[in-house]
């Protein structure tokens, strides 16, 4: 548990890649960039501009092979030979959050949401609603890349993200920590507006096509639904997250 509580660099930084996103991060006075990594093949005016911007911001620039930059960016085509690690001050390991003297009362758990736009919009909504944690597993969910940041309109940098290996791992940790686990399902008879919530609750948001995975479903305390009297089967997961987040705002506990 000690290593998990300490977290890894991936639990502290959001990595952005590409010349324009890196320059925007360096030029934003509200962001703290830990370092810039520039491919050793990057030369010319574009590389010089990044180096000048990093120097002005007091950010160290490291050189690495083009292959190494691609590996670190997790993107084979659009890194343009440069990436930056941006400090996300509210991102940390889930284990650390659960070990707090006063752990978060309400959490969202993303399970199998692979569209970056949905992840970004959920982070934006949850942050706007003042929720104290969105669990974003490292596996099975869209990587926290520039598409997520863009979809969140930049809010992802300061969103309360909690990291762990997988959604199943998160669910097990939550149950062990005394949380009740709720999952959204269209056929559930209990409405999200009527369900009685205990002091610690976590809400699972399933993937765009498969919904909540079987591994997590096994640990769900209760399934709840969003009432939809209109002739629509389901909502986009980011829209459902918005309804849920602001229902929690209405209840006054985040």
UniProtKB/TrEMBL annotation:
Gene3D superfamilies: 3.30.1330.30, 3.40.1280.10. InterPro entries: Alpha/beta_knot_MTases (IPR029028), Ribosomal_eL30-like_sf (IPR029064), rRNA_MeTrfase_TrmH (IPR004441), SpoU_MeTrfase (IPR001537), SpoU_subst-bd (IPR013123), tRNA_m1G_MTases_N (IPR029026). SUPFAM superfamilies: alpha/beta knot, L30e-like. Residues 15-92 form the RNA 2-O ribose methyltransferase substrate binding domain. GO terms for molecular function: methyltransferase activity. Pfam families: SpoU_methylase, SpoU_sub_bind. SMART domains: SpoU_sub_bind (SM00967). Keywords: Methyltransferase, Transferase. GO terms for biological process: methylation. Belongs to the class IV-like SAM-binding methyltransferase superfamily. RNA methyltransferase TrmH family. This is TrmH family RNA methyltransferase.
């Amino acid at each position: 548990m000690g290593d998990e509580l300490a977290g890894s660099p991936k639990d502290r930084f959001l990595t952005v890649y590409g010349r324009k996103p890196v320059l925007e991060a360096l030029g934003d006075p509200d962001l703290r960039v830990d370092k810039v990594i520039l491919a050793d093949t990057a030369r010319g005016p574009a590389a010089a501009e990044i180096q000048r911007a990093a120097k002005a911001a007091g950010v160290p620039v490291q050189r690495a092979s083009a292959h190494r930059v691609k590996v670190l960016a997790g993107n084979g085509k659009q890194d343009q030979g440069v990436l930056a690690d941006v400090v996300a001050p509210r991102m940390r390991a889930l284990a650390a959050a659960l070990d707090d003297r006063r752990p978060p009362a309400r959490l969202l758990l993303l399970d199998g949401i692979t569209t970056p736009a949905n992840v970004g919009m959920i982070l934006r909504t949850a942050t706007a609603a003042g929720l104290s944690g969105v669990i974003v597993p490292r596996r099975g969910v869209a990587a926290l890349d520039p598409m997520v940041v863009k979809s969140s309109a930049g809010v992802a940098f300061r969103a309360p993200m909690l990291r762990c290996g997988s959604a199943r791992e998160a669910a097990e940790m939550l149950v062990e920590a005394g949380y009740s686990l709720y999952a959204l399902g269209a056929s559930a008879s209990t409405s999200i507006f009527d369900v009685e919530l205990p002091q610690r609750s976590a809400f699972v948001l399933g993937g765009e096509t498969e919904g909540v995975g079987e591994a997590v479903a096994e640990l769900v305390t209760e399934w709840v639904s969003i009432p939809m009297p209109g002739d629509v089967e389901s909502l986009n997961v980011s829209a459902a997250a918005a309804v849920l987040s602001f229902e929690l705002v209405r209840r006054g506990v985040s």
